[in-house]
Design the sequence.
């Protein structure tokens, strides 16, 4: 679905000529208000798969990606929203992946819990669904874990979507286990927002599965690491899981059982 509510009329019916004019306008103007509106229109049109291909074939991805270097936060945010819709296409992902490092940088430098930060996290979520581009996100793991501790619930949910995707890849296990999240066990509580709790449990379950398969266990981990909190001194973790067996949500209990029986 479109990522912006200010949808121009009938963006799905725009033909290649109209889209080409928008891309040219975006490339030619320095006016941030015009850039923002062009990005909104391109982003909403990209919610329709036929337009995703047209925009790529017209060279629009590089023009939109170029906006990530803009100094105006709203322009960067709308560029990220447009790329997010465009990234629902595998061929587009192959071009968008060159911006992952820059997107990670935008997430890290953006104000905490801002729309800009969330837009970057949404794009990273789409780009991490497959493991193809996970190596480009390794250096951002400390930032993601920091946001998991410091962010609002809205930010935490979006961060966990990325972390769950990364944790499904055995090759990322040791990088994640080295990370530090002082509040990780605090999230595993019956009072935690259900969406956050469920994703945190899936994250832990994925890591445990990979640890059991001997991925990432050859490294040394500090006492503040995720590895130590979950698997090193597991008493507190085990107590959390025992309590969560009484959670009213069936999916939550399913993930707890998954962790306990692996």
Sequence:
């Amino acid at each position: 679905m479109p990522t912006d509510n200010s949808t121009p009329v009938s963006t799905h019916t725009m033909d290649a000529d109209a889209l080409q004019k928008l891309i040219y306008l975006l490339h030619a103007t320095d006016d941030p208000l015009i850039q923002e509106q062009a990005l909104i229109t391109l982003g909403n049109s990209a919610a329709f798969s036929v337009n995703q291909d047209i925009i790529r074939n017209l060279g629009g991805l590089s023009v939109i990606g170029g906006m990530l270097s803009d100094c105006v936060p709203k322009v960067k945010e709308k560029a990220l929203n447009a790329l997010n819709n465009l990234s629902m296409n595998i061929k587009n992902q192959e071009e968008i992946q060159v911006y992952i490092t820059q997107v990670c940088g935008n997430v890290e430098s953006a104000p905490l819990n801002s729309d800009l930060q969330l837009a970057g996290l949404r794009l990273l979520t789409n780009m991490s669904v497959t493991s193809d581009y996970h190596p480009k996100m390794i250096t951002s793991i400390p930032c993601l874990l920091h946001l998991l501790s410091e962010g609002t619930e809205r930010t935490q949910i979006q961060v966990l979507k990325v972390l769950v995707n990364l944790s499904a890849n055995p090759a990322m296990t040791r990088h994640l286990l080295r990370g530090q999240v002082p509040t990780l066990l605090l999230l595993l509580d019956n009072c935690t927002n259900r969406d956050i709790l469920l994703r945190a449990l899936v994250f832990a379950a994925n890591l445990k599965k990979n640890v059991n398969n001997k991925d990432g266990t050859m490294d040394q981990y500090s006492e503040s690491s995720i590895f130590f909190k979950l698997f090193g001194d597991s008493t507190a973790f085990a107590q959390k899981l025992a309590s969560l067996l009484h959670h009213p949500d069936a999916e939550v209990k399913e993930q707890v059982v998954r962790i306990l029986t692996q």
